[in-house]
Amino acid sequence: MEQGDVTILKKKPIYPVSPELRKYLRFYQRDARLPVGYHDLLNFYESFPVSDKNGKDTLWESPLYPPHEMERLHTGLKKAYAMLKASGNLRIVEHKYIDRIDYCKFGNSNPFRIKIVNRLNDIYDYFYVKKADSSRIYGLELEEIFSPNQVNYLVDGDSLIEEHIAGIPGDVFAKTRLRETDYNPIRIAKEFVKFNERCTITLLGDMRSYNFVMQITPDFDDVQFRLRAIDFDQQFYEGNLKVYMPQYFKENRPYVELAMEFLTDKTVLQYQQEEQSSIMYQARAERHRLRELHEVCLQDKISTVENIHQLREGLAKHFRDSHYYKCESMTEIIELNIKNVIRQVIA
Fold this sequence. Notes:
By secondary structure, this protein is of the alpha+beta class. The chain has two domains: 19-163, no CATH class; 168-346, Phosphatidylinositol 3-kinase Catalytic Subunit, Chain A, Domain 5. Helices cover 42% and strands 18% of the residues. The chain is built from eleven helices and ten strands. The protein has helices at residues 19-27, 38-41, 67-86, 134-146, 170-176, 185-202, 253-262, 265-285, 287-298, 305-319, 330-346, and strands at 46-51, 57-64, 96-104, 112-118, 124-131, 153-156, 159-163, 168-169, 212-218, 223-229. The protein has a seven-stranded antiparallel sheet with strand order 1-2-3-4-5-7-6. The two termini are 24 Å apart.
């Protein structure tokens, strides 16, 4: 695998959810009337920084709300959690309380992180309230369709609530566990290659190590690994092809070096083909949903003409395929990516 450094210079704009996308979300039961929205949570008068257990700044803040607002917000957030997890069945939150609300100014969506705790056994969970951005929604939908992972979220107006994706942050895993002797480095490297391939094909950008998590599952004779994206703000917006290739971010260099050390060109190609086969089967299985999403996305403004032209030129050179020059939208570029994957797999 190649190494290199790539940076994103400008913050991506928030794209509003179009009427056509809302209709799609309603059909697939992603649309909801939430009792608390993003703007409700912005009504705090002060905040203080949140530190980790070692006293290091986490880039999150803990907001303070007027006392008369706290009960309304907490009640509404519990109902929102029930809608996200159990189709609105309030019995699942009878013994739960909102322990804390955190706010992050870092990133595009400026999310709120909600910690909800079961008072019977102290088991807790997290969920997020964010600005509804059509780029992120398209990213979540493509993750649902093409990856082996399920995602759970709801949209109401300009608010989006999203479940927490459990796992060890990719940057933390790289620093603390990547070279553990009990772990098979080939399995980790394989997972990074497949993750890199899926991001490139589906145009999921900015997968620096702190934007994905590592999930570890003990098996009967080994340990299995899975990389999961947790940030979908940079779904097919940027024009630089390398933004969609995790291998080019300096933050991911430990994973790239692991792959270069333990994989050969032949095995890298094998794992890329495995991921392509998986994407092909998913595209066939979800063809109706994919077609509907394609029709909605085709009408949507989700990038700039300059970015589209830059990306199609980069892909045309990378894959040596002049058909990319005919693409006039990010949607058409992804469609051509999928068609090329299917051609390669069945060839």
